[in-house]
Amino acid sequence: MSSVTVPVTAPISVGDEDAEYKIVEIRATGDVVLDVTFENSNACNKSIPTDAIQKIRASRAKIPSVKACYRVRLETLKKHSKYFTHLLSSDVFGEGRAIKDTLDSLAQSNLKPSEVEPIRLPRIKIVDEDDATRTIGREVVFRDILRIIHGAEHVTKPVNMIYLSILVVMADRYDCSGPVTRYVNGTFGSFKYPQTLDNNAEEILRQKILIFYRTNQAARLAAATKELILRGSSRWVSYAENSAFSSAWWDLPDGLEGTSYYI
Question: What's the mean pLDDT when you consider all of the chain?
């Protein structure tokens, strides 16, 4: 696959904060800006890229949270994501009303949202917590999700298990699993999932199960869940609270670990 350049505009001031953030142009003609804070904590134990968390811990620095801004198309978000449909509908939440007011103001000034500087566009604040994945670097996965639902290619390299796991977790959270599932099964259809025969590979096996389940890969899901049954799980024999079991793949959704499911 050829390399893809991600357009980035000049930095803009965000609100009253003493900082500037670059706008990632998911669509150069976008009419809203998503201002997303990716909250990270010391509970994070993984990262994209894979060595980032080790470098932070080696420096003894606090794991930083990250703010990123994305210029996107409002109607595209609402078309592909029920999360954004509910959040950005003008008659439901304040975010929707703020968008309507800003766009109405631009219209009264005979300005097209697709042509103005991003600082003049409606800005929607979102907080993405780290509880589900315990991984820093989620902003690049979120960027790829926005690109996918806007009909573009992902740009994060390399694609690995932690990337795919976070991709499906975030797609579920933002209720845009449909286009992401189609993209995974198409673009990543030949992805080589690692073997999980080693006794220490349960986490990867669980990530595979979650990916296959979220992307409707029935045959692979059946094989992976059978492997987990035959292997057994360290979680099944541990009754105490364990922070190692806090990520989404350690708490598989919709009763996947229930006996009735396997029977």
Answer: 87
Classify strands 20-21 and 12-13 as parallel, antiparallel or unpaired: antiparallel
Rounded to an integer, the average pLDDT of 123-147 is 94
Cβ–Cβ < 8 Å for 83, 173? yes
Is residue 261 classed exposed, middle or buried when 0-12, 13-18 and 19+ CB atoms within 10 A define those classes? exposed
- Domain spans, the chain: 1-152
The closest of 222, 219, 200, 209 to 250, measured between CA atoms, is: 209
- 3-class SS letters over the chain: CCCCCCCECCCEECCCCCCEECEEECCCCCCEEEEEEECCCCCCCEECCCCHHHHHHHHCCCCCCEEEEEEECHHHHHHHCHHHHHHHCCCCCHHHHHHHHHHHHHHHCCCCCCCCCHHHCCEEEEEECCCCCCEECHHHHHHHHHHHHCCCCCCCCCCCHHHHHHHHHHHHHCCCHHHHHHHHHHHCCCCCCCCCCCCCCHHHHHHHHHHHHHCCCHHHHHHHHHHHHHHCCCCCCCCCCCHHHCCHHHCCCCCCCCHHHHC
pLDDT at residue 261 tops 70: no
